[in-house]
Amino acid sequence: MFAKTVPSKKRRKSRTAFTNQQIYELEKRFLYQKYLTPTDRDEIALSLGLTNAQVITWFQNRRAKLKRDLEELKADVTAAKKTSECGSEMDEELPYVPGSTSPDELRSRKGGDVDALKALSPQKASLDSTVTSVNS
Question: The Homeobox domain covers which part of the protein (predicted)?
Answer without folding.
Answer: 9-69
